[in-house]
Amino acid sequence: MTVQPKITRGHSACPHDCPSTCALDVEVIDGKTIGRIHGSRDNSYTAGVICAKVARYAERIHHPDRLLHPLKRTGPKGSGRFERISWDEALDTVAERFRAVEAEHGPEAVWPYYYAGTMGLVMRDGINRLRHVKKYSGQFSTICTTSAWTGYIAGTGLLAGADPREMAKSDCVVIWGTNAVHTQVNVMTHALRARKERGAKIVAIDIYMNATMKQADMALLVKPGTDGALACAVMHVLFRDSHADRAYLAQYTDCPEELEAHLKTRTPEWAAAVTGLAVEEIEAFARLLGERPRAYFRLGYGFARQRNGSVNMHAALSVPAVLGAWQYEGGGAFHSNSGVYGWRKTMIEGLDALDRSVRQLDQSQIGRVLTGDAEALRGGGPVKALLIQNTNPVSVAPEQELVKRGFAREDLFVCVHEQFMTETALMADIVLPATMFLEHDDLYQAGGQQHILLGPKLVEPPGECRSNHEVIAALAERLGAEHPGFAMSPRELIDWTLENSKRGKLAELEENRWIDIQPPFRRAHFLDGFNWPDGKFRFKPDWTKVPAPRSGLFGPHETMPALPDHWTAIETADERHPFRLATSPARNFLNSSFTETPTSAQKEGGRPELFIHPQDAAASGIEDGMLVAIGNSRGTVRLHARLYDGVRRGVLIAESIWPNASFVDGRGINTLTGADQVAPYGGAAFHDNRVWLRRAEQIRA
Description:
This protein is 29% helix and 17% strand.
């Protein structure tokens, strides 16, 4: 008689770097392994829907290639030659090397480096507690949000917006600069509900005909970096055709008359020449908005990953203000709710030990930092030791050739705490095996919605895997770093953070599974004023004083336009580099996560490909499936051509991020991306690259 396994249902939250932060129901088999993962139907935002890659998470958590034991490098860096060691030997070695570096070069020569491989507050941010107590170099996180957040906050004064569930109550949902089908599927859940129940129209604006564009009623295919021009032309038409809500503008905005005068020359004809759209498309979009002022603008990160990204985000955000859309349920705009949580993270991050005189190194410029660039080092000495959690910079950081060169330094000690032998782990001296989200307790906040969620431990970790918190606490003990947070368990840290942030207690969150903190309608729609002293939306922001995360002023901030406009600060194509390249998100990967799971790689076609317009391909003698080369001053990458008429001529798309080893030369797509800091507060312009394109045999490998 066959004994059926006992399946129970646990509850968790998705830990990955996606705005949806889905509430999850997890099949736990015999208390040891997991089966299928489902989106929680009880959660009003997740609404029972999650992406396929997380639904099949059993393939990842039970993967045979997971790291299970501490390892010490025995061969050259990158050789993959390691030997198994004990946890005590591994931690003692790390602590010994850190102490030696600190003694010779000072504490700033040690750089704890992390990002969003997990979005749990305890496991992601606890590394900062060790940083602050030990006075190690700080990290200014610029690789994802900086330019987008700055552009949004420039208008509203706060990183918040209309309840994203209100998309279902809209008459027109504008999905701008985000391929939601790939990156935040719940946006489509609520937008499609609006179409079904209200006859709403869905407008998608992007730089190639991706899965979201194909589901839209109106798909506007713009050239990269030209979104500000489209926004200006739409506002021009709204003023011209009496669809601007002048009463709203007078009450809630700073300079509507000046904006209207400025937009007189920003006609659809002007914008068509900039964006590549037809005049008729721009007019039709503006007319649709004028007829449906209950319009919800879901603004993503994609169009802000340009050197003019903050300006473009602010310009797009200005459209619903001109329309007066904020007045309506189902209207207004949204980018992230990260500004509404009000966390006290003193115990998690050790903020009471923060010394603001310690230098802040730019996360995106890790290649420049590790190769001794004086400006990137902020005038200080070299980085001699790295502790890396939750990120894979050898694959995901820009200027990859510099990054590789930096990691290859023999005088650089690197400890990587990871789940798989990533390309960064391959360059480490010590590799430590890490837990996954169902194997530890953590606390999550959503960015793309409004819930605080609990992610409790549901299964035991395999082998000798330890959580980020365990590793940080163990190193702190060996390094003599003292802080109450090191002695607390993850559950105690969660409880302290909830209570001191006035969000109740862990026991209450555990019972309820999540807390809905969506602000009331009037506050979320800024109907009592925007978050500026005068309560006015800023069409004319002071770009040097936007209350967004910052570590200084960077890029050509002096030339940023005063009012919404097309700002030509992008890396424009030229005679030598006639193509623009964007590294847009793949559906089955999430940055470099999930690239290790067979189903995800198979569904992505098994190899990196470059989307090329057939006419561009023909002009270069390129056929479908052919090995091609693209390059610029940062390097050369070879990958296979995929002819696709859903891109504009002169635009190339490489859906990413494939491991470097998946490319024929071992050089990944971020070989071509730049790490120059964009205006005004920094950030990485991953979708803003000019390149040349040739048949692979026409260049040297």
